[in-house]
Design a protein that fits this description.
The protein is mainly alpha-helical. Helix content is 80%, strand content 0%. The protein is built from 9 helices and no strands. Helix 5 runs antiparallel to helix 6, helix 6 packs parallel to helix 9 and helix 8 runs antiparallel to helix 9. The protein is elongated, with a radius of gyration of 28 Å. The chain starts with a helix and ends in a 5-residue tail after the last helix.
Length: 238
């Protein structure tokens, strides 16, 4: 959210009509009593009031630092592609003539940036999933399972049965994680294709050759999809 969007919120409205009015008035009165001219006292009181209101304006979200080289493939590729698309969109907006259309495009781009942050979070989660699979080491587990199965066939015991069940459970976890990683990568691949399409359409919008409202709606749809994708991988399967 930009400053304007954060200012036009219920929180700020309450601050405008709150005790801050009395604070500004009190400061103005005290300032006048100590000898400051009335006009100066009024200005000081208004400044204190305005400053206290600005302090109540909701803060913007923390800036997300996106580093493609902190994740492995295929996630790095997705992140780099998304950043290239964002740079291309920024270039298109900068080349747009100043005015309401450019302002609208910038607002849409800001919304899209929030979606890219969700995509970045999804890519990091995908990389964590791959790390979990490597830690489980399915190849080692399958070798261990074959060894235990041979031992159980030769001389079954309760302990061997329990060990087999444990290894099978770990393998099932690894398989679920691998499937989740593959689905996530496939979904990110699709969202990147849609992002490229939207960036191309932005050039048409910038010259009035495409509908701005439809473009904004499609951007919102993509952002919601990225948010849903992140939510789907937020918690690892058991």
């Amino acid at each position: 959210m930009g400053l304007r969007d954060r200012f036009l919120t219920p929180t700020t409205a309450k601050a405008i009509m709150s005790w801050r009015i009395l604070l500004g008035a009190a400061v103005g009165v005290v300032t006048a009593l100590v000898g400051v001219p009335v006009i100066g006292a009024v200005v000081i009181g208004l400044a204190v009031y305005a400053g206290s209101v600005l302090l109540a304006v909701p803060k913007g979200p923390p800036t997300t630092t996106i580093d493609p080289f902190s994740v492995g493939e295929p996630w790095r590729h997705f992140v780099q592609a998304a950043l290239r698309s964002k740079r291309q969109l920024d270039t298109t907006i900068q080349a747009t003539k100043s005015g309401p259309l450019r302002d609208r495009l910038q607002s849409i781009a800001d919304r899209l940036a929030a979606g890219l942050a969700e995509g970045w979070a999804t890519a990091k989660r995908g990389d964590e999933i791959d790390t979990a699979v490597r830690t489980l080491d399915p190849t080692r587990l399958r070798s261990r399972l074959a060894t235990l199965q041979s031992q159980a066939d030769a001389a079954p015991t309760d302990n061997l049965t329990a060990a087999l069940a444990s290894v099978e459970s770990q393998l099932a976890s690894a398989d679920r994680l691998k499937a989740l990683s593959a689905r996530t990568a496939d979904n990110l691949r699709l969202t990147q294709a849609r992002l490229d399409e939207l960036v191309a359409r932005a050039a048409e919008v910038s010259v009035g050759a495409s509908d701005t409202d439809r473009f904004a709606s499609d951007v919102d749809d993509l952002v919601l999809e990225l948010e849903s994708l992140h939510e789907a991988v937020r918690e690892l399967p058991g």
